[in-house]
Design goal:
Elements lengths: L2 H11 L2 H13 L8 H13 L5 E2 L6 E6 L6 E7 L3 E2 L12 E2 L4 H14 L12 E7 L7 H9 L8 H7 L8 E4 L11 E3 L2 E3 L3
Parallel strand pairs: 3-6, 3-7
Antiparallel strand pairs: 1-2, 2-6, 4-5, 8-9
This protein binds zinc ion.
The site of zinc ion (ZN) has 4 residues, from loops.
């Protein structure tokens, strides 16, 4: 493993407490797509505490921030989804909305916050080039379509999915590569997924 990878891992491990604290908070405040306003406010406050300036979507939840290493190179977008599912039978669902992070997106947003914190550690950008954009996107799950259709009719959104919406708003302009993490019930070792589905890397 390269020296810069080892440094990155050490810097990420320092964020353990922050990541778990954020994941716990998000787990306890599940919100479905285009309703993630508490989630947005919580994460916004955490990013601003770290010193980041955010570009917010505005009339829907979600934002991004960008780190420039000062050296030429690609722009890598690391993305996290914010929304929960509705699972009435889930023992941890919200008693009123029945929302719960049954897809584990609380871990995505907590993990991305950990990345944001790690990139603020001294020397974190040494050995890196290009730009890193960190993005919180709403509305991954295709649920509550009537609600989204109302938003569309009101002119708030053009797309039911948050990623398509952000793409249409130009929030991914200049990005060369997009990546995100997702929890799984499978054993550790599955490292990534591609746009056409899960794939185990060698
Ligand atoms: Zn998911």
């Amino acid at each position: 493993m390269s020296e810069s990878c080892q440094v990155a891992i050490r810097q990420a491990e320092k964020q353990r407490e922050l990541i778990f604290r954020a994941a716990d908070w998000l787990w306890k405040h599940p919100e479905t797509g285009y309703k993630e306003w508490q989630t947005h406010a919580f994460l916004k406050a955490e990013y601003e505490k770290l010193g980041y300036t955010l570009v917010e979507a505005g009339n829907i939840p979600g934002f991004y921030t960008e780190i420039d290493t000062g050296r030429p190179g690609p722009t890598v977008l690391i993305m996290a989804e914010m929304d929960a599912l509705i699972v009435e039978s889930h023992p941890s669902c919200d008693p009123e909305t029945k929302a719960v992070h049954a897809c584990g997106h609380c871990c995505q947003s907590a993990g991305l916050l950990g990345v944001a914190a790690a990139l603020k550690e001294p020397g974190a950008l040494d050995g890196l080039s290009g730009k890193i954009r960190l993005m919180e996107v709403p509305a991954e799950e295709a649920i509550e379509i009537d609600f989204r259709e109302d938003l569309r009719k009101q002119g708030v959104i053009r797309y039911f999915g948050g990623k398509q919406e952000f793409l249409s708003r130009g929030m991914m302009e200049g990005v060369d590569l997009v990546t995100l993490i997702h929890t799984s019930v499978r054993a550790a070792g599955l490292r990534t997924a591609r746009h056409r589905g899960l794939r185990q890397l060698p």
